[in-house]
Design a protein that fits this description.
Number of strands: 37
Structural class: alpha+beta
Shape: globular
Strand content: 25-35%
Length: 831
Amino acid sequence: MVDANPSASISGSKNQIKIIQQRGSHNKVYELYLLPMHRVDGLEQNQLQGLFPALAPKRCQRSRVNDRLLLWLSFVTGGDQVSDEELNEWLKDAARTYFNARGTITSGMRVIANDLNEKFLSRSTTLSHGNGKIGAKLNMSLLRGDDLYLAHAGAVYTFLLQDDKMTPYFNTNSHSQVLGYAEDIRPHFFQTKIQVGDVLLLSPSPAQGWNRQTLTFEKRPSLQSVRRRLLNNTLGDFEALVLQLQSGEKGEFHKMRLANALGQAQQASPEVDSQEDSVPSQDDQEKPILSVETIEAEDQSVEENHQPETVEEPEMAVGLETNLPDTEPAIDESLNRSSEETEQNSDAQASQEKEIPQKPKVTFDSVIEKLPFPGFEESKRRFAKMWVKLRKLKDNPQSRIVTQPPLLPQTEDGDNPEGEEAQAEVPSEKKQQEPQFKLPISNSVLLFVAIAVPLIIAAIAGATYLKMGVEEQFAYYYERAHQISVEAIGETDSEVKRTRLENALQYLEQAETFRSNDDSHELRLQIEAALDDVDGVMRLELFNIIDSQLNASIEISKLFVLNQYDLFALDGNSGQVLHFIYDGQIYQLDDNFVCGGSGLEKFVDIAPLSPLNEKRASVIAIDAIGSITYCKINAEPENEMLKVPIFGWLDVTEMTMERNAIFTLDQGTRALWQYYGKGQIFTDEEPYLFFSQDPPLDLTQVKAMDVYSDTIVFVEESNQVMTCVVQAMTAEDRECFYLPPIDKQGDPIPLQQMDWVDIYAADFPPSYYLLDQNSRTLYQFSVQMKLNKSFRFYAAGGDWLPKNDITAFTVTDQQNILVAFGNRIYLAQIK
């Protein structure tokens, strides 16, 4: 009887052949072609930080000889604290640990993640308090035969492109497994089969323009077609790695590099396209080629202490080709000659212009700006008319009366060394024939001058008097602010010091209602710095990030950012969703994006959607009667209706999402409803009452809520914070409790002084952000509501922040803070 276990020792050639056939899939060898894509400020580069392909070394565990390991680590926070050389050494050590470790593939990949995690945790403990933590996401791919293993630690994405289908690999729970923030990393694993010609697309976050349609090809794609599709359908900067499997015998990594500026490869490039791809078009053949760097086992061995040689990349976006051009294109010398002559002529003309001094042109505006009577518009208007007439006299010489030059006055002989001829007296009859000078201005103009000049003098006098009064008022309040601030600096009692500094700031604000100068600005900075020191607050610089000021009627009540390039905002007045696109410097309003703002589409809240939702939408919005809308970029929105709960809808005020669950708060019926939707489609599911019995808090007093992991967080009008566990067995078993905020010393923070604007639950670092309207202070609490940091703001470039209230804020994964003052949006980077 033959043992069915293929791993058993079996005698006989037939059985041995059968075993080899069963294990044949693990002996398949593929050549792996890597194409790094990194667009920064519109320029395509070929380097990706943290990318490390590894082949099995000469001496390793026998089970791992045929493994091909690819690591890509991307920083979330603190990337500047680790050099590229040190990061490569860490990745090499992690790969060495994998190839020398025993056990399964998944256990080895878990060892890699925890090995890097320990290095980040150890480095974070040595950093100063201001530098913060180091956090990173890790995307691991391992190929053994035709078996592909993927491991994600952190919210990273992998897409498998095959023929006419695209398979995404992503898990929403991976965001909590960020290296450097968790004690134990448990990556999320995927496994699938692959074959020759398949393409893998890896990215730390999908860029705008990536969707199922963009990443689906009619046939098996090549590196060239994938690269072209990504460049043509991606807005802004992005990072991605394209990997394609080709048949081969060595199973090596081949890193594709863009050609240099001359269009010549550093070495011959093998054919990398799939066998099923069509012949490249003529346009493609005219583009520069790729060079290939083969990463062999000797160069990439984890037992040897050296890295593949790095080559400086071109700073320009170039095309993809696989053949060298036979000849260089001809150059029209006439074009160069004409351009040189043009440059010489322009240089000669410029030198001549420099020799002639140019007088500043006198205009009405240049004169009127110097007149010290601001506010007298009627006098300016009359002066403008008079100016026009005077200019006509100057520009028309024929209208003037030409007279003889005045004669020299007669003097004594001794006083005239040049003789009497130069002092000849003019005959009296000739004097009588001299024409009389007449002023070429009408009587009406003379009358106007007679009236206007006294008025102008009076206006100047009045302005001078008012200016002296303003100066006296400014000097009084400024001196009071300066005196009180000096007294406060020497105060030892912190409470007294804070009170005096606040009084000094009030006096300074009163002074700046009259005017401001460099001294007042400097004094404000000193007072604010002293207040920050007393309160232990870090001051962050705010930058205006929208291209122009929005309509004055807009009041932004909700903010969030998707993929770093798409900013969405909800106008609390009109209920319209606004979309802004990042162009590398600022966010520009997308005029083509339309979602809500009228009728039943006056939304009360919005939330971001997963990039892989079935609706291919970016935002989900809800109105007061439970109607939801899927807002899409470059497409019409889709309106749907949630199934009406047993109590009906009365007044929906809040909505929040976590993975495939949506929570809607109806304060009219005092109920919180939960909907579950596969693929984030919520209209087909029945609602569940979150609190089956009396809620532990008054839901009509909830002014904000958010979800962190398996906890929903409520903020009440009394500024208290309550958390309730989402994943409970039943609604009766749900645990809820208040979290009183405490400072770093463990003392309670008085809530009566607070006015929380909103709450944001961050996944990494795990924390709650709350913004106090009264002091304009943003607090970062731990999930136990212990204060970690607090921030205040100042405007960049010496400008002033708006006086109106802060209406919304959010925190991005890149540790950016966005703050909305009504219709204006600012951004600050957490230091």
